[in-house]
Amino acid sequence: MALLFLFTKNFSIVPMVALFVLLMCGIQMTGVHSVGVCYGRMADNLPSESDVVNHCHANDTNVLNALRESNIEVLVDVPNEHVKTLAQDPNQARNWVNNNIKAYFPSVKFRYIAVGNEISPIKHVEFAPFVGPAIENVHNAIVEAGLQDQIKVSTATYSALLTNTWPPQNSMFNPDWRGFTDPIVKLLKDNNLPLLVNIYPYFSYIYNMKDIPLSYALFTDSGINSAGYQNLFDALVDSMYYALEKSGAPNVEIVVSETGWPSYGHPAATTDNARTYYTNLIDHVRNGTPKKPGKEIETFLFAMFDERGKGGDETERHFGLFYPDRNSKYDQLNF
């Protein structure tokens, strides 16, 4: 089963709640059943939506319609700016589910709904108080539709919410932000919902090159192993697992909603390094982590294409696995 993570502003079916600015498209990889690929659209030189969906074994000119009967599973994102609306009005959540999920189900195989992406109680004070209530309202709408066994509702978060992350066993959610994280964690635990987490060893490495060996970030050497960890990806994933455990939710599962390595824009951002990261990651995720050995890690690679329209550091425009002409940047990757 291929996986698709869908974020696109073109699906503004409900006026108050549009979908976001990216489309993540999953490509089935040989021997790996839990890896998807992100399809960012912040560029003016990318293939058409229909071409990209064809790339994912579907057809048609409208992406959701194109996904009908495609055997590609989808994760749909609710953008940060609409989280408050869904939190304050259960009817808006119900309408969103009716128009964006039920209208396409079951011919489109929805898997997750991510309510917000990397919302921080410091950087996004206008959205943060509403994440938990929005998840609850959307989840309740999914239950009302009888889809709770097929579609799980969550939010996509990141390691910045943690403290004491090394060794991973010491990790916890920042105590100053427990008013934000605790209700979300409890909601996920009580409803058997996963936590979506963006994991980027690349950024951890470049911000602490003094202490983190490149080989440790690329899975190529044991590097730091005093805490039983042979690579940075596992350490970051398990840091989140330990934080969940300390918050009373040891059984909440983690889905890696984004991970990637850029190919240009920094001394560590090379094509060889990126190829190494993706190749080793694809081989690795089937094996689990030291805390969850043997448990395959559902993972989405970021991203499908380089996106020359993105702002920020130069590296932000070079996370693609494919060139805009759909030729693979990394020929040795086994898709």
UniProtKB/TrEMBL annotation:
The name this protein goes by in its record: Uncharacterized protein
Annotated source species: Solanum tuberosum
SUPFAM superfamilies: (Trans)glycosidases (SSF51445)
PANTHER family: GLUCAN ENDO-1,3-BETA-GLUCOSIDASE BG1-RELATED-RELATED (PTHR32227)
UniProt superkingdom: Eukaryota
Family membership noted in the UniProt record: Belongs to the glycosyl hydrolase 17 family.
UniProtKB keywords: Glycosidase, Hydrolase, Plant defense
Gene3D superfamilies found in the cross-reference section: Glycosidases (3.20.20.80)
InterPro entries: GH, Glyco_hydro_17, Glyco_hydro_17_plant
A matching Pfam family: Glyco_hydro_17
